[in-house]
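Can't paste images in this forum, so I'm doing it all in text. The chain is below; anyone willing to post the predicted structure tokens underneath?
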Amino acid sequence: MERMGHVIQLKPGTIEEYKRVHAAVWPGVLRQIENSNIRNYSIFLKEPENLLFAYWEYHGSDFAADMKQMAADPETQRWWELCGPMQQPLETRKDGEWWAKMEPVFYTA
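Text version of the structure:
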């Protein structure tokens, strides 16, 4: 299992809509997250900076393949079309990232 954290910013004026859609995530999207070996998925919001922090635990053996499968899912694509315009990627993210991957520096059980 690998713990993963990512960060992105919300565009001004989108917080209430983002919260609204995430209060009722589509069942197909939730199913695809599970099928992609992601567990314990949480998203946190930090205002007033409008930063989103996503945390999950990856239980698979090929993250790239699982993310490719997720990206190919039509319902997930529609979800991303809904949520993507509300997000503002960080300028410091690496090439190919939307949400910027964070480095884990501490964990205790």
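The two ends are 14 Å apart (CA to CA). The chain has a mean pLDDT of 97.
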